[in-house]
Specification:
Number of strands of chain A: 11
Largest interface: A-B, 63 and 65 residues
Strand order of the largest sheet of chain A: 1-8-3-6
Oligomer: homodimer
Order of helices and strands of chain A: EEEEEEEEHHHEHHEEH
Distance between the termini of chain A: 47 Å
Shape of chain A: globular
Structural class of chain A: alpha+beta
Radius of gyration of chain A: 19 Å
DNA sequence: CGCTCGGTTGACAACCGTCAAAGCGTGTGG
DNA sequence: CCACACGCTTTGACGGTTGTCAACCGAGCG
């Protein structure tokens, strides 16, 4: 599978691609980090996916939106696979087809998790869940998390403003849930349990209603 | 591919599955509509995906969340494929593998679109984009959209409250962008252009800055 | 040294969630 | 056939949260 890949090293902020229409390549981050952004007619940017080492991106078409893939850490290495060739390989080798399938499902899972984070009500929860997810995805066993992105990128990723991201950070820091180290992008998770529950039963579980009935149609 | 499927007809509000852990089946909506919901420790529900006829759902694992798939219209027909068998078929027949791949990529695309909607700033934009997407997905050429879901489901889907959904609807109606028919779930799109742009240059494009430089890391 | 950019904090207005209440539609039972 | 009840929808009032604007700090760099 790696035989048809062309790996390239990118600088921080460098665009891997940025276009509208059919995308003829699939990408995979080998080291560093990259963001998948959509530039809206509006001028506003939104980051709809964050790629860490091992993550995969396959975009079929980008109708009516301008997609952009961009490195966010210095020296990010990305493998680029021609779509045509990878499809042919998958057709001829079931193992490769299975691998591509798994990568696609991982992408689905990643996006679903992101949807859950965006569905949170308060910004503090969003940032808390984001930090938790980043801690998981970065895979370090320690509680130290070195964010690969700026606050601006976090804001675009969580669909909130930069100032709100900062405020959420300091709020979590004041609560003693996280600790902001000297280095700006380095964060230590102090109380992981509080991050996971967060607002859960903040004011006691006064809503004793068991949510058995899901539907209301 | 349809040989291994077991199709079942469901009532409105009936659960197709609801569990935590490994999901051993993949699903496809043949007619009607279904929602993929996550019940959080909190008790709050969030709809992370909406399945219309032709749409596909494959969940690998639902670690740490309880996933539920539930019909939202009466008489929804859903095909259920055992994961094991569909993988074996895909391994033996490249055409099936390709089909599964395409379905997975469509799921990715659907989730990305939903992320874009959730990334909108105001609730009116969210509802407007949602209606536009529903109009596209339902595929009717006319401007009439019959929503398959309740306002509660829309709220859980857009991560806003029910009241806000109603207010956004009436706001759009007051602006003359949409028309609320007598039937509650029937909506007519009057000014499609306004829905697409929406807030775009509401107060003139005072931010003349061309967003060439995407990155700020 | 001055510049730029990222990060942080404050003030204020607008938006949205919550609580409350009232209008509708549908289905069921009398 | 009608009355009632229940659930969905809508609207209002109010307080909390967040976006926006503004200013300041610190670090990197020419």
């Amino acid at each position: 599978l790696e035989a048809i890949a062309t790996t390239t090293r990118y600088h921080c902020g460098q665009a891997i691609f940025s276009q509208t229409g059919q995308v003829e390549y699939w990408y995979r981050v080998l080291s560093g980090a990259a963001k998948v952004a959509v530039i809206q007619f509006n001028g506003k940017r939104q980051i709809i996916d964050l790629l860490l080492p091992g993550d995969f991106l396959a975009v079929l078409t980008t109708e009516e939106h301008e997609f952009a893939l961009e490195a966010i850490t210095e020296g990010t290495v990305i493998a680029c696979y021609p779509r045509q060739q990878i499809e042919e390989l998958a057709d001829s080798d079931p193992r490769i087809a299975r691998e591509v399938r798994i990568l696609a499902f991982e992408t689905v899972s990643r996006l679903q998790e992101q949807l859950l984070i965006l569905g949170r009500t308060t910004s503090t929860e969003k940032v808390g869940c984001f930090l938790l997810k980043m801690s998981e995805r970065l895979g370090h066993r320690s509680d130290k998390v070195v964010l690969p992105m700026s606050r601006y990128d976090i804001a675009d990723y969580l669909a909130i403003s930069v100032e709100t991201v900062c405020r959420a950070m300091t709020t979590l820091s004041d609560r003693g849930v996280i600790a902001l180290s000297g280095k700006r992008r380095s964060i230590r998770i102090v109380d992981r349990g509080a991050l996971e529950e967060d607002h859960d039963s903040e004011f006691g579980d006064r809503n004793g209603q068991v949510p058995k009935i899901i539907s209301r149609s």
